[in-house]
Amino acid sequence: MVPFIAIFSVVAAGIVLVMYRPLILTSVSADLAIAQGIRVRLVGIGYLVALALAVSLSAVTIGAILSTALLIGPAATALRHHQPDGSCRGDRGGHRDHSHLARRAPRL
């Protein structure tokens, strides 16, 4: 997956670098670019392709970061709230007796 991302990142950057001057001129004034002989439609399509590559590659990267955060977050939170004596920081008064939380079977 990494070679795929690296190759297409270089392709997207190469498209923008090759079309740098026509892209800036087209962005400032399409009429002036047409007068200079630049194919405005071709520059727009090339920029669209480069932008599509960049967005799709960033979606893969952001997805990897988010999935890692969702895996690490709960464990990190549990470690922050754990006390060495076995109690939790969220307990009132540091009580370790949680018997009041247990459900008792109703008497018949």
What are its keywords?
single chain; 108 residues; mainly alpha
Write down the overall mean pLDDT: 83
Helical content (DSSP H or I, runs of 4+): 55-70%
Radius of gyration: 29 Å
Distance between the termini: 62 Å
Q: Can you tell me the number of structural domains?
A: 1
Order of helices and strands: HHHH
Instruction: Give the percentage of residues in beta strands.
Output: under 5%
Q: Give the total of beta strands.
A: 0
**Low-pLDDT ranges:** none
**Tally of DSSP helical segments:** 4
Structural class: mainly alpha
Shape: rod-shaped
Describe the biggest sheet? none
Write a structural description.
The chain starts with a helix and ends in a 27-residue tail after the last helix. It has one domain (2-83). The longest helix has 42 residues, at 40-81. It is rod-shaped. It has 108 residues and is mainly α. The model has no long low-confidence stretch (mean pLDDT 83). The protein contains four helices and no strands. α1 (2-18) packs antiparallel against α4 (40-81). 69% of the residues lie in helices and 0% in strands.
Set out the fold topology.
Layout (H helix, E strand, L loop, with lengths): L1 H17 L1 H9 L1 H6 L4 H42 L27
Can you describe this structure in just a few lines?
With 108 residues, this protein is an all-alpha fold.
